[in-house]
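Researcher: Here's a chain I'd like modeled. Treat it as a single chain, no partners, no ligands.
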Amino acid sequence: MSGTGSQQRAPVASRPTADDAFRLARRIWFAGGRVDMSALAVELGVGRVTLYRWLGSREKLLVEVVWSMGRKLLDHVEAQVHATGGDRIVEVIVGFLDGVIRSPAMRAWLRDEGEYAMRLLTRHHTGFQPRLIDAVQELLEREQAAGALDVPVDLHELAYVIVRLIESYTYLDLITGEEPDARRAEPILRMLLR
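Model: Modeled as a single isolated chain. Structure tokens:
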């Protein structure tokens, strides 16, 4: 019986893509695992050269993975906050910071690779910090455009200071040995935004 169409063909496995590699790295990171480029390449069945061509360095991949979490968290917190003006900024930033601090994946990463994580997320050249500054600046600009926020400083500078505050409280245990607590940032933010 040939050519009748009655034979079932085994499904052809699709070749992995850059998106597959990114999703796998995210799953590993969110599960608290270490994102290792060699292990990713093996699991995907691709060469390391291909993986690096798709995703860049491990540093770049981790920044993208963590930014995807950060952006999603920030959007979620913003959607939950109904206050306006400075109160809105404070509630969004404290909620975001609390989510970062409580994230099991972030806690595992900071525990296992704290100095490296801090370096990646606080250096301008990696791309994470500028995106977070831009996101905070956009939040400030929306409140200012709505007439709900009037601060006597440049909004980009204020966004930079707020991001540095987020960083300080995120890495508090690495910097001072104290337990991170988002609520500690609230009075400082209120003072900045009055």
